[in-house]
């Protein structure tokens, strides 16, 4: 693949990552509006987000098996086509129960998007220069997250929350067609049974560490994010304004992704993780102390910066710990990440429903500290062993 083809491929992968992240986060600013229209509580509607994250995580290993046999590009196209169907079902849901089911199925379909893109980059880009395109992919994810909280909140206020779900469904359908131009990497199909690939990853100690860290990262850096617009709304802000302010997260990821890219050759991966983990800890200290609009926005920015430093480095690590079973390793990484996020959404939903925001941030602070320490030490030892 020449540089021109690689650039085109990366742009298509970025568009896919953007659409997936937009779809994943857009329910956050619409929780209050959806609960009012469908006659359920915020806690009940938040189960749609939890179902999305859980199905997104569980489906990873299934898509990994499909990807190894069908190919990276065909798998992404199939998943996007299915996501378009269930996205439209989400837009037409007439009750909270139906919405939870529809969002879960949509999440299961979008589950193939970003992990397949990660594996595609792993298959086509040497590890020594891999973090740069992975950071670009994360940047697209950040833009999608940022526009989701602003755009979906505005659509819910001025048109309908159903329009937001329909928009990503149509985008997924378009991408499913356009991505036929993406060249399939050579030699990416693995004839080994999925259980063999799973065994290879699960007996690999560095891979197991990365998976445990991904679970905690999902709880810490993604779990509470769904509820930030609700926290801001509780302080008296409208749904639209709360959604707009929450875009600070995506904007921070976008800005600090460039910083990470610049520092990739100056700082070791362990130090990048340490910076990211420290920013997350600082964010939750601030959020534990105050839930007013300004501290919440500042905390959101710190979390976005922490994600930029930590997650891009963790992603790169995940593509390298088991290269012979890369699709399985990356899929398990995503499974653990979004399982942690789903656990967070399930745990925090009842607390948010009664306005106990301090308890949410205390729990995440308690998890953020060991995450930063263990991830930093673990990545440092991985490097010293010659990986």
From TrEMBL:
Record's keyword terms, sorted: Cell membrane, Membrane, Transmembrane, Transmembrane helix
Cell compartments where the protein resides: Cell membrane
One CC-aspect GO term: plasma membrane
Record-annotated membrane-spanning stretches: 12-36, 48-66, 78-99, 105-122, 134-155, 161-179, 207-231, 237-257, 269-287, 293-310, 330-348, 360-378
Principal location class: membrane
Record domain Major facilitator superfamily (MFS) profile: where: 9-383
Record membrane topology: Multi-pass membrane protein
Source organism, top-level taxon: Bacteria
A GO MF term: transmembrane transporter activity
Protein name: Major facilitator superfamily (MFS) profile domain-containing protein
Species the sequence originates in: Actinophytocola xanthii
Lineage: Bacteria, Bacillati, Actinomycetota, Actinomycetes, Pseudonocardiales
